[in-house]
Amino acid sequence: xxxxxxxxxxxxxxxxxxxxxxxxxxxxxxxxxxxxxxxxxxxxxxxxxxxxxxxxxxxxxxxxxxxxxxxxxxxxxxxxxxxxxxxxxxxxxxxxxxxxxxxxxxxxx
Amino acid sequence: xxxxxxxxxxxxxxxxxxxxxxxxxxxxxxxxxxxxxxxxxxxxxxxxxxxxxxxxxxxxxxxxxxxxxxxxxxxxxxxxxxxxxxxxxxxxxxxxxxxxxxxxxxxxxxxxxxxxx
Lengths: 109, 117
Fold this sequence. Notes:
The complex is a heterodimer of chains A (about 110) and B (about 120).
Chain A: E1 3-6, E2 11-14, E3 19-26, E4 32-38, E5 45-51, E6 56-59, E7 62-67, E8 72-77, E9 86-92, E10 98-99, E11 103-108
Parallel strand pairs in A: 2-11
Antiparallel strand pairs in A: 1-3, 3-8, 4-5, 4-9, 6-7, 7-8, 9-10, 9-11
Chain B: E1 4-7, E2 10-13, E3 19-25, E4 32-38, E5 44-51, E6 57-58, E7 67-73, E8 76-81, E9 90-100, E10 103-108, E11 112-116
Parallel strand pairs in B: 2-11
Antiparallel strand pairs in B: 1-3, 3-8, 4-5, 4-9, 5-6, 7-8, 9-10, 9-11
């Protein structure tokens, strides 16, 4: 069955550093991979979508890579800020999405 | 930008009662909406795809007679949890596809917290 793995351990980093989150998947060949931010008690907010034929995509301080051979996506936040503290979800698909369990990021001032 | 709202944001009900949750796309039309459920510290799980003017498509393991979905207009989908039980307590979230900057994007509602006593 399809499986998406995100590091369940919280990631704690210092303000200004680059945060790197990992998403690995198995038994799936998605045409699209998306990253969302979710704050406690709120719905997810779309951040970036990357297609299978794209290696990398950037948006302001965010960068996503997509390696279909390794079946892995990396999500980077550069110059991190305390306001970036949230749970980040990886999702496969375009509309009906399969989500990972998310990684909680805590940026310390 | 596109906005999706949900009502109510929070509901507490007694076991055995039914609860209706509304999902609205406020400034765009959505022929398809999606309903997810999220238990504490777990991932969002897709429950069903709501299609305007036709029957919803349910994911494996989701009882269609328990989770009734109605998508009567291009801006409104409702999820009714019938004969709710404590194990139905969860965070229910809807999403809809809208267009931003010429690109399709998934917009999620703020979620509805259901507590069944």
